[in-house]
């Protein structure tokens, strides 16, 4: 008797022992699980490939993101400096206004 049958119609030692032990009833379930495993593995490979493609695309956008961040940083610095200038001009305006009010009070007195 051969250890394993060459085709499904023959009986080998393994099939004979499976019949005696009763483990042959699990063969169909094992085959279903193997098919399910193969399907899930294909899905995993597909999703892994999509993740890799997304990572490549993300790296391609990294330089553009850096340019945008630099632009926003420069724009923020510009706005801060412009605000400082306006406050200085406002302070000078208030100073001139106060001097004018004082001069008017001195002229009236």
Report on this model:
Helices cover 83% and strands 0% of the residues. It has two helices and no strands. It has one domain. By secondary structure, the protein is an all-alpha fold. The model has no long low-confidence stretch (mean pLDDT 90). It has helices at 13-21, 27-108.
- Give the termini separation: 132 Å
Helix content: over 70%
Strand-residue proportion: under 5%
Give the biggest sheet: none
The number of helices is 2
Topology:
Blueprint: H1 13-21, H2 27-108
Features:
single chain, 109 residues, mainly alpha, 2 helices, 83% helix, rod-shaped
A few lines on this structure:
With 109 residues, this protein is mainly alpha-helical. Helices cover 83% and strands 0% of the residues.
């Amino acid at each position: 008797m051969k250890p394993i049958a060459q085709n499904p119609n023959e009986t080998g030692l393994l099939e004979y022992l499976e019949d005696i032990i009763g483990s042959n009833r699990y063969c169909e379930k094992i085959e279903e699980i193997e098919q399910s495993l193969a399907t899930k593995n294909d899905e995993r490979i597909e999703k892994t490939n999509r993740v890799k493609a997304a990572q490549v695309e993300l790296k391609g956008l990294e330089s553009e993101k850096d340019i945008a961040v630099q632009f926003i940083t420069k724009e923020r610095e510009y706005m801060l400096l412009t605000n400082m200038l306006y406050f200085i001009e406002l302070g000078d305006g208030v100073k001139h206004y106060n001097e004018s009010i004082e001069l008017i009070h001195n002229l009236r007195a």
